[in-house]
Amino acid sequence: MSGAVALPAPRGAAGLRRAAPVLMGLGRLVLGLGIAAAVWEGAVLGFGIRPEYLPRLSAILSTIAATPEAYAAGFLRTALETLIGFAAGVAVGVLNGVLFLRAPVLRDMLFPVFVVSQTIPVIAFGALVVLWFGNTLLAKAVIAFYLTFFPVTVNTLVGLQSVDPRQMALLRSFGATGRQVLLRLLLPSALPQIFVALRLGASLSLVGAIVGEWFGDTTGLGVILLQAMYTEQVTVMWAAILCAAVLGTGFYALVALAERYLVFWGAEA
Amino acid sequence: MRGVLGAVLIVLLWEGSARGFALPSYTLPAVSEILGGIWAQRADLLSGGATTLLEALLGYGLGTAIGIALATVITILPWSRTGIMPVVMAVNSVPVAAYSPLVLLWFGIGVSSKIVMVTLAVGFTVFLSALAGFDRVDRRSVDLLRSFGAGQASVLWRLRLPAAMPLIAAGMRVATVRSLIVAIVTEMLGARSGLGWIIYQAVVQIDFVQVWAAIFVASAISLAFFGLIGWVERKVIFWR
Amino acid sequence: MQRRTLLTAAAAAPAILPFVARAQGTQKATLRLKWLAQTQFAGFYLAKARGYYEAEGIDLTINPGGPNLLTENLVATGADTFGLSGGTDSVFAAREKNLPVVCIGVSHQQTPFFFVTRADGPIRTLQDFKGKTVTTWYTGANYVLLGMLAKIGLKPGDFTMQPQQVSVTPFVEGQIDVVTATKYNEFYTLMTRMGREKLRTFVAEDEGITFPRDTLIVSETTARQKPETVRGFLRASIKGWRDALKDQKAGVDVVMAASPALDRAHQEFMLVEAGKLMTAGAAAQQGLFWIDDAAIRSAHDFLRQNDVIKQPVDLAKAYDGSFLAAIPVADRMA
């Protein structure tokens, strides 16, 4: 009995995994989250950790439940800033990568400047950002953009450069135009590399949006976070951290999902 | 050479607009003014820069090691992936500065809290790059190697690591810059020394030339660090 | 060509602006706060909610502040019209660095922070600070502390002074001996975690040092070109503050509406303390936002003595009480 049933079982499981990887992932995620929540709650209670260091998860959740509209508004606002900054950062980053590949002169001239631009801590020029962009949503998106475009540029360039020159030569010999080579060969080959930067950028753009909100704003997770930090509302601070974590993880998962659909190199090579 | 040209162009543009539009130093000080500020404050900036660099280097070393190690663990033990990934992602989604009150509470206002923060930031960047690199290898090559009886560790060493090298290197390069920024930002929120502390105090004293002087020094250090890692990278990958 | 367009635009702008203003009957202005929304600023929020600024022809936007955002800088560059900035100390620093800002009113008439020790601990007098560890903010409070201790003969090497981090937890846990607290914020946290009776406070005024803070500022240009707007802003703000201090529930409500995640009990406490600071000293006779020349001069001389400001600041140019003087005293009383 066991032999007869055991044989098809793995095949069935594999089929399920292929058919509904998202569902499986979701199930495991929920399980993982449940365990993490239980460990959190248990550790705080069990080790008697004081709320200044780490409040109980249930206390944090009930804080959110007390004024859900504040957290919802903050969440949406921060998400919007993150998305705009991320989209702009990715567009400019990929464009930069292509541009730098085509025009090494530009690369040699601009790349060091980009590196320098990344060495300036955002928080140090908050006043400049407000001066230039005012207290708008755009100002926050700009900071998210500023943190995102650099890794995307670097990775796009690295990805494009690592394309096998023989493949390029082959495509050229068939009379492919520069545009075709770019769209058919270069970008698809660089995609895995670009996606590493996108995943990194998903987190960085959120960080940028939240820090951007520290330059004088009324709504956003960053505002709640900062306010709670200085009035020592520890549970509120953790509530904001939790919201940011959910937003960041969700955004990251979306990017990873997109990657799964767009990147086929595993099967191709 | 062209890099120098680009830098010179930017500097000229900056100097020109600061002087041409007669911008007051609270909007944008001229480059010459900032360089003068650096010279005047060289002793403070040197010791502050040394502190910040120390924090960044130690955190960078730790972060790189932890990032690669964690990626290795996940690759060798695939079942641990679902457990580790969401936690890492959740931790990383929150801006570094949000943890600073906690980290300052746990590790004090000295150097160690900055090293912890840098380790976190660098570790994550390198971890993501390394993981993507390890995953990058051809499925069939892995199967082939395994059919010859190679274990996960052997696959990692023979196949995955060489394939991952360029990605790990790219991650390490991006992380150089992050390491200094995170050290500086953490210093700004509570420290006894370092460039971030200098920036913080200069802002309070409304001394914008000094703010920019400290930023220039930070940039110079980052750039040198970035260059150094790039150089090492070329050596190592060439050797491979 | 481009230059000509720019010139035309520049020439047209002042011509158009008053027209727009007249057409709508109001003009746009912003107030930059020194921090995020909290009842420390309740009067401004209430004045806006009750339409007092509108009644003065000002369409006011309140912009919160943040760490590393310098109100003096934003007002000097024209990014914001009005500012509630750090305090007399930051106004001095701004004037010393030639930022064209003028203080038109002072909110907190006395030093809003004090130094806190454990009531049952070894520190009973300032003398006992010797050999102890003190944390404070290096944003002016450090000089107040050094000044207080200098008066009783303690030198900087006699005690350990460290930058204070955001949380007061190290003090609560006994890792440090003295902590700096604003009367309206950190002290509330200390009270709720340790109990008021467990705390002993050392006040700067007891040592003859005073440090008025939360200063209202405008740029020299605004002060010169739009004196009526500045007066209108002050009238409306004072009206809002009188309301907020009389009807504190309204004051807390309006701030909680702007920032619902705040802790209401803390905000209620903060408004009471802010009210005390705003009506202390000369403001008791002269009304809200009074610029007490004696207190300003004392703060200035103190910072000058300690070489925090490297050269004397022309106080007559930095502090302009004329806008406030245009409002009858009776209307300024809280």
TrEMBL record, chain A:
- Gene Ontology annotations for the cellular component aspect, listed alphabetically: plasma membrane
Regarding the membrane, this protein is recorded as: Multi-pass membrane protein
**Pfam families per UniProt:** BPD_transp_1
Q: Which CDD domains match?
A: TM_PBP2
Principal localization reads membrane
Keyword Transmembrane helix part of the UniProt annotation: yes
Keyword terms, alphabetized: Cell membrane, Membrane, Transmembrane, Transmembrane helix, Transport
Q: What processes does the entry annotate via GO biological process terms?
A: transmembrane transport
Q: Where in the cell is it found?
A: Cell membrane
Q: Where are the transmembrane segments?
A: 29-49, 56-76, 82-101, 113-133, 139-160, 238-258
Zinc as UniProt keyword: no
All copies of domain ABC transmembrane type-1, residue ranges: 75-259
The organism's place on the tree of life at top rank: Bacteria
| Family to which the UniProt record says this protein belongs | Belongs to the binding-protein-dependent transport system permease family.
Name listed for the protein in its UniProt record? ABC transporter permease
Q: Which organism is it from?
A: Roseomonas indoligenes
User: Which taxonomic lineage does the organism of this UniProt entry have?
Assistant: Bacteria, Pseudomonadati, Pseudomonadota, Alphaproteobacteria, Acetobacterales
UniProtKB/TrEMBL annotation, chain C:
Q: One short Pfam family name for this protein? A: NMT1
Listed under catalytic activity are: N(6)-(pyridoxal phosphate)-L-lysyl-[4-amino-5-hydroxymethyl-2-methylpyrimidine phosphate synthase] + L-histidyl-[4-amino-5-hydroxymethyl-2-methylpyrimidine phosphate synthase] + 2 Fe(3+) + 4 H2O = L-lysyl-[4-amino-5-hydroxymethyl-2-methylpyrimidine phosphate synthase] + (2S)-2-amino-5-hydroxy-4-oxopentanoyl-[4-amino-5-hydroxymethyl-2-methylpyrimidine phosphate synthase] + 4-amino-2-methyl-5-(phosphooxymethyl)pyrimidine + 3-oxopropanoate + 2 Fe(2+) + 2 H(+)
> Which residue ranges does UniProt annotate as crossing the membrane?
none
> Record's InterPro entries?
NMT1/THI5, SsuA/THI5
A GO MF annotation of the entry reads: transferase activity
Under which pathway is this protein filed?
A: Cofactor biosynthesis; thiamine diphosphate biosynthesis
Gene Ontology terms describing biological process = thiamine biosynthetic process
Q: Which residues belong to the signal peptide in this entry?
A: 1-23
Keywords on record: Iron, Metal-binding, Pyridoxal phosphate, Signal, Thiamine biosynthesis, Transferase
Domain (SsuA/THI5-like): residue spans on this chain: 38-249
- Superkingdom field: Bacteria
Assembly mode: Homodimer.
| Protein purpose | Responsible for the formation of the pyrimidine heterocycle in the thiamine biosynthesis pathway. Catalyzes the formation of hydroxymethylpyrimidine phosphate (HMP-P) from histidine and pyridoxal phosphate (PLP). The protein uses PLP and the active site histidine to form HMP-P, generating an inactive enzyme. The enzyme can only undergo a single turnover, which suggests it is a suicide enzyme.
Family that this chain belongs to: Belongs to the NMT1/THI5 family.
- What is the official name of this protein in its record? Thiamine pyrimidine synthase
Record organism: Roseomonas indoligenes
